[in-house]
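hey m, so remember when u said the tokens were messed up on ur end? i reran from scratch. heres the input so u can diff it against urs
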Amino acid sequence: MIIRVIASSRSVEIDDPKAFSVRIEGAMDAAVQEKLLGSVALRSDREHAWISEQVLRDWPSLAYEPWWQDGLSNMIAAVQKFGWVDQVNHSIRAHIEYAP
């Protein structure tokens, strides 16, 4: 999935369930970006964000979709071997990309 942090609407959306990354779209000041990213990530730097598993599981439009829950569980299991899952904080590492 691509977690889109969108400057123009100051919102966070989920798109494309086949990938896993964060896309910062558009220019925004650091405080706004931190607030929006903080709504899904437990921590982040310029390159990576640790996305809360619970936030993804509770995503309003997807929370009651069995395919979403199963797909999320499968994705977490698949990336665990790379060290991209924080078992203590229940978060998943995502690469951050920047789009104009």
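this time it looks ok to me. The helical segments are 30-38, 53-57, 66-80. if urs says something different then somethings off w ur setup not the seq
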